[in-house]
Amino acid sequence: MSNPGKLPNIKYGEGKIDKAQLEFMKLIEEQNLERVQKLQRVKRNNLLTAGALITSVVGIYAYSIWSVKQEKFLDDFDEPKKVNAN
Fold it and tell me: What is residue 60's DSSP assignment?
């Protein structure tokens, strides 16, 4: 096992990146950028769809409440008068 009091040796001079690794990093970065843009586009479309659905539901609900308030046929309904048999 490692000694807890001793730090690992780090060689600073050997950390150079060659041209192939740089090209690979650029390729991965471009693919990641395309993926992020696609996810942002999907998120925007999902938000637009959710907004349209919510607007439709609220509109239908408001219209149904408004149309029920316009119905007056039950307001004019009078109870039949009771006839006394005396």
Answer: H
Q: Round to whole Å and give the CA distance between 31 and 57.
A: 39
Give the separation between CA 83 and CA 80, rounded to whole angstroms: 9
Measured distance CA(29)–CA(6) in Å, rounded: 37
Maximum Cα–Cα distance across the chain:
119
85: exposed, middle or buried (C-beta count within 10 Å: 0-12, 13-18, 19+)? exposed
Q: How far apart are CA 54 and CA 46, in angstroms?
A: 12
What's the one-letter identity of residue 57? V
CA angle 25/17/27 to nearest 5° reads 10
* CA separation for the pair 20, 9 (Å, rounded): 27
pLDDT in tens, 37-58: 999 999 999 999 999 999 999 9
pTM beyond 0.85, yes or no: no
